[in-house]
Write a structure and sequence with these properties.
The structure holds 4 protein chains of 4 kinds. Chain A is mainly alpha-helical. Chain A contains 1 helix and no strands. The chains are: A mainly alpha, B mainly alpha, C alpha/beta, D mainly alpha.
Chain lengths: 54, 225, 211, 248
């Protein structure tokens, strides 16, 4: 009759740790996306400079 | 020494003139007055809780007074001057904390007996309570000083100071309230009962007196960089 | 203004004192501000640091005052901040104090608590007869004049002045010039950051992109 | 200008090497964490019911490792901050900042599971038991540390302030533990608190150790993920400041 407490504690563990893992991975992928965007933007104006230079 | 005395005196002077002292003491009385409304008027209950409540309210009033400890000087540039005083910056920090202690903490502790009457505390317990507060309050001011120094560059750093200082208050509150509570069971005349508690409180204060100034000075230097 | 000269008459700074900096570099946060800055200021000389906003004039002065660590470079004497006055943008005055109390605090910080000569210091700074007035009620120019009191009350060989002329009227600027000249005559050194030219400056240091 | 840029990039050089290393380590570490967790849960699933507490003892296999991780987390932050301050190693700050929320979540987990475990026995959700109270204060220490990072906007100054707090806070942990334990005995007659485990029988101990190891590797895996994210964020801030010219 105590099973509810057991399932609750494992459920809370799954929710809290799962949430933290998901949030961390999402933040990581968003940061990677921003860096990629910045690199792309940087290489774009690199090409423009080359074009102007040539 | 005269330089440190001047720094201490000026902080006291400014706290007094800007009404910090009056504000802190009135905060103490406000909190104590509100408690019976929450807890109910029976004197027996209030008497039982009085020592602990007085300690908690003292700690919180102290914490709220610490926010502007360094921030005012940080903003108007006098922290730069204090850093250039030809003395160890830790000593300057201690002088300022002493000024804060004399200008704010002593008046608070002095008003605790009166506030205690509001909670129907037994008069016999007051000496032990005040003694414990005198032993423990340096630790509270020094720990709060660390929080204030770390949060000095933060716009509304008051709450951050309280959150940072709170864990350091736990030991002082535990032994402080215990000293006051135990003092009545065995009666003050024996006096031996609260001796060890005062000892622990004094030890906590001495330890923080040794460690806190370095942390505070490091935090302030870092904020000025 | 004549009486200001003799204010420093009894003060003599050592004639062979020199402040030298080689290859100074400054980094604020992750941003490089300047690098490779070198200069030397000897007794009786004043250096004016010029440069656009953000070129690091204030950062350089804060480095000399020891408030900001050097990213690179060497300062001689290393502890030059110990006997220097640093007057930054923020005046470091307390609004709740009166002028007399502020001057008394300056004297106490200088180590000699005698408040005797403070009366005529206030008078010389054009703040005569206002001892009772609170700093809060002073104008920006008057507050700048009050910050100059430290230089007079506590004579130190090196002055680090950040924009000394801001908020000062012509009389105020003249006052700063006279004080500076008197300080230089008594063997002192000045390093000042300023937008406009300083008449007492012997040398100039330009900070900025082309440095 | 170039010389200043060089010593800036030296500041970031080892993070670049770190990112390469982290990318290689990332997936294997996560695989190990999941594997250990799965094996641990399997072992926990078929542990015999405890003669005393019956089924609820199974909560111990989550509560105790979480409490271990909350203490491990703060020691991790302390040592990372010390290496950052003493050896001028910026990665220390990154590691400390990345580990803080992970430690805080484990502390919160320890509190919730502790209360869930205590409820059937004491009939209330919260008991001022010595261990639970110390873990509660530790949660405030974590929150203070995280709040300090958030509050100071300039990254280098925030890192220095946080490392000072981490070191000072670390000294305070044993003092809090001592005073809370003493305070707890003052009030409760010295009844063995239900959370105190009698010497554990072997078939309880091994699953507990496995779950402990699983939580440890999980802690490290999440922290490693967050460290990579923090390094990238710092670069974004630095490059945003310089007009994003340099490549990453």
């Amino acid at each position: 009759m105590y099973d509810i407490y057991i399932y609750a504690s494992y459920g809370v563990t799954a929710v809290l740790l799962g949430g933290l893992i998901i949030v961390s991975f999402r933040q990581l992928s968003r940061a990677r996306a921003h860096v990629a965007a910045l690199n792309q933007a940087a290489s774009l104006n690199q090409d423009d400079k080359k074009k102007e230079g040539a | 020494m005269p330089i440190l005395a001047a720094i201490c005196r000026q902080h006291m002077h400014l706290s007094w003139r800007s009404g910090q002292t009056v504000l802190a003491v009135s905060f103490l009385f406000i909190a104590i007055t509100l408690l019976p409304f929450g807890l109910g008027p029976e004197l027996k209950l209030l008497r039982a809780l009085a020592p602990g409540l007085l300690w908690v309210v003292l700690a919180i009033s102290l914490l709220t007074s610490l926010e502007r400890l360094f921030q005012a000087d940080y903003e108007d540039g006098s922290l730069d001057r204090l850093l250039l005083v030809p003395l160890a910056f830790e000593a300057v920090v201690l002088a300022k904390l002493l000024g804060h202690y004399l200008a704010l903490v002593l008046p608070l502790i002095a008003s605790v007996p009166l506030a205690g009457l509001l909670l129907n505390i037994e008069a016999a317990r007051l000496p032990a309570l005040v003694a414990a507060m005198l032993c423990g309050s340096p630790a509270l001011v020094l720990a709060g000083g660390i929080g204030a120094a770390l949060a000095v560059s933060v716009r509304r750093g008051g709450l951050l100071t309280v959150l940072i200082a709170m864990p350091f208050y736990v030991p002082v509150l535990i032994f402080g309230a215990a000293a006051a509570r135990v003092s009545l069971e065995t009666g003050l005349e024996t006096g031996v009962a609260i001796g060890p508690y005062l000892g622990i409180l004094a030890a906590l204060s001495a330890a923080s007196l040794l460690l806190a100034p370095f942390a505070i000075a490091a935090a302030l230097r870092s904020a000025l960089r | 203004m004549a009486e200001i000269e003799n204010l420093f008459s009894k003060v003599q700074h050592s004639r062979d004192a020199v402040c030298r900096a080689e290859g100074l570099a400054c980094v604020r946060g992750a941003m490089p501000v300047f690098e490779g800055v070198s200069f030397a200021v000897s007794s009786g000389q004043a250096l004016c640091v010029r440069g656009a906003n953000g070129s690091g004039k204030s950062s350089l002065l804060r480095q000399l005052a020891g408030l900001l660590p050097l990213a690179a470079g060497v300062l001689t004497p290393p502890e030059l901040a110990r006997n220097a006055h640093y007057l930054g943008h923020a005046d470091g005055l307390k609004a709740a104090l009166t002028i007399a109390e502020t001057l008394a605090y300056d004297a106490a910080l200088a180590g000699h608590g005698d408040g005797s000569a403070l009366g005529d210091v206030a008078m010389r700074l054009g703040l005569a007869g206002r001892d009772w007035q609170f700093v809060a009620d002073l104008s920006a120019g008057q507050k700048r004049r009050l910050t100059l009191a430290r230089l007079v009350i506590d004579p130190r060989p090196l002055w680090l002045l950040d924009e000394p002329m801001t908020a000062l009227d012509d009389a105020g600027c003249a006052l700063v010039g006279t004080l500076a000249k008197a300080h230089l005559q008594s063997g002192g050194m000045i390093i000042a950051a300023s937008h406009e030219a300083l008449d007492f400056a012997d040398a100039e240091l330009l900070l900025g992109s082309e440095a | 200008m170039l010389k200043a840029l060089e010593n800036i990039s030296a500041l970031y050089a080892n993070p670049t090497r770190f990112m390469g290393l982290a990318a290689k380590l990332h997936m294997p570490l996560w695989a190990l964490a999941i594997g250990l967790l799965a094996y641990g849960l399997y072992r926990v699933a078929n542990v015999p019911a405890d003669y005393q507490q019956g089924e609820t003892v199974r909560i111990m296999f989550v509560h105790v490792p979480a409490a271990w991780m909350s203490l491990f987390g703060y020691s991790f932050i302390f040592f990372a901050s010390v290496t950052a301050l003493i050896f001028r190693h910026p990665l220390g700050h990154v590691a400390a900042r990345a580990a803080a929320p992970v430690g805080a979540v484990f502390t919160l987990l320890a509190l919730i599971t502790g209360s869930l475990w205590g409820q059937p026995m004491w009939g209330t959700w919260w008991v001022w038991d010595a261990r639970l109270t110390s873990v509660l204060v530790l949660l405030f220490i974590y929150l203070g540390y995280i709040a300090l990072w958030q509050a100071i906007d300039e990254p280098i100054r925030a890192a220095r302030a946080a490392s000072i707090l981490a070191i000072v806070g670390f000294i305070n942990v044993p003092i809090v533990k001592f005073s809370v334990d003493w305070w707890n005995t003052l009030h409760q007659p010295a009844s063995v608190s239900r959370l105190a485990r009698p010497a554990l029988h072997a078939d309880f101990l091994y699953p507990l150790l496995i779950m402990g190891a699983a939580f440890l590797v999980l802690f490290l895996a999440i922290t490693l993920t967050r460290m990579q994210m923090e390094v990238l964020r710092q670069r974004l801030r630095a490059r945003a400041g310089k007009g994003g010219a340099a490549h990453v």
